[in-house]
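User: I'm writing a tutorial on reading structure tokens. Could you give me a worked example: one chain, its sequence, then its tokens, then a sentence or two explaining what the tokens reveal?
Assistant: Sure. Here is the example chain.
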Amino acid sequence: MVNILIDCHVFDQSLQGTTTYIKGIYLELIKDKKKNFYFVSHHYPLEKLFGTQENVHYLKYKSKNKFYRLLIELPSLIRKHKIDFAHFQYVVPPIKKCKYIVSLHDVLFLDYPQYFPFLYKLSKKFLYKWSAKNSDIVLTVSEFSKQRIQYHFDIENIYITPNAVEETFFQPYNKNEIQNQVFKKFGIENYFLFVSRWEPRKNHHLLLKVFVEKEYFKKYSLVFVGDEAIENIEYNNYFNSLAIEIKNKIFKLKKIDFDDLININRAAVLSVYPSIAEGFGIPPLESVACEVPTVCSNSTAMADFDFISDCLFNPLSTEDLNDKIKFVLSLSNDLSAKKEKLSKKYNWNFSAQQLNRAIQEFREKNNYFSKK
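And here are its predicted structure tokens:
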């Protein structure tokens, strides 16, 4: 049996791309009964995600402190449970007690430094590069990210484990019923939706300007779903200058759970993803899976989203974004064909197979087979 530990401390913070990634891949991988899986969090009930079965185990961090987790708790847990491989997101512990797998989702702070604080860039460059160099298997989520990691860190043999969409998003639903549920719970209706944490590179301000200057506020509301990360001063200044009647059409929702996120997606009139730079970009995939009209930036990794090629726009152009919004709103909105293309191109089973292949190739190349 191979023992794999998965660091899940990100689940203790908020839903984000990395949590979707871990959940999606390991819901597939735990079907392999030749492997034991040890999921570790501080307080998040991971049992709700991965269920109860013989080869799945749950461990708890005693502390929320990241330094204590990396320096003390993780080496201890790895030793105690005789872990063969430990899987981390971005940063690995300095004391190495087993083989390391690290997922580097992106290195955007190196390609787009203007969107990140100085200390963030300085620390992340060192930590990410050191973690990649000290890991036995390096993963990323797109060809774009793979090329940029290779360029900046001089690392070869990176495996691509793409993000995908959970099956729940593909399930049929009654649009009117969901819209009524969302209105009763959140007081929002007839809205454009943008799902993303708040950072300047996410480009919330561009969508806000188009929404205001093209007068979409007269007919629609604008809903932002996501937690604060890095302050977007340009957005704040523009929003503060608006009339109260326009501000009343703009909503910011935080700490949304998974079920509510699905319903908020389903109830939207339009989903917009104007991000300037992404290592992947899951939200536009989720809205297409819900058959919600979707327009998306054509920048960085998102240029690969050929299943919505007619709905991609330049994230630096208000006119291009507006043209795509008008184009999509004018359609009959039968997205079944795009949904089918999406499901074939991006699915968690494929990503899990890629991680399995990486582990197997490492074991064969290094004659590393568990003696347990």
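What the tokens reveal: The longest helix spans residues 348-366. The radius of gyration is 21 Å.
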